[in-house]
Amino acid sequence: MAAEIRLFTCLTDNFGYLIHDPATKATASIDAPEAAPIIKALEREGWTLTDILITHHHHDHVGGVAELKQKYNCRVVAPHDKAARIANVDLRAGQGDVVKVGGLLARVLETPGHTLDHISYVFDSEKALFAADTLFSIGCGRVFEGDYPMMWDSLLKLRALPDDFRLYCGHEYTAANVKFALTVEPDNAALKARAEEVTRLRAANKPTLPTLLGEEKKANVFLRADEPSVAASLRMKGADATAVFGELRERKNKS
Ligand code: ZN
Ligand code: FE
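That is the input. Now the predicted structure with zinc ion docked in place:
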């Protein structure tokens, strides 16, 4: 039986995610921005929280962990990088580890750059990627703790996943990302199509996620830093992808 995935808003612009295995009734929350909306979503479905899969140490991803752990006595899985000092952790996960949520398997990819500890979770059987603050729709996370080569490398790891995988990310930033991306690639047809879709979804107060990874590869300029046309648009013809990526990220920071 296929897993069920629920998405809802937490805090201002974070996404909360639940993934539920009907066979075993296990339910994981991907990150825990705050407890209340997660508890509400669980109660609405009649599910019990068994696991929390943390992607990185930022407060808007772990703020609800203590309360949820106390209420459900669930297992807390966190990045293996202990320097990040996440509290209440039961299991540490790093590159290549497989975390079980009931009968579901989550493969761990280390995707540092936004933070040094950042990991992403891939449910291959569900074709689902939870990339938190590494990859956003039409954008990527700010590079706070790592550097541009590190972040570009992380994005390449995610880009290597199949086109029919769905991307679930940490924040609803798509509209702002689209606005910036159009300044670099005003003629990108996939981006223009996504822009229209995002305008429609936001006007209806609907989330812009999940989205297909194959669409992101065509429309997300941050996954396209090695496209000669992107370098040309930045007047960086011949520059390597890392430099182009860094320039994109800096321009976005200032936008
Ligand atoms: Zn973050
Ligand atoms: Fe965040």
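Residues 114 and 142 are 6 Å apart (CA to CA).
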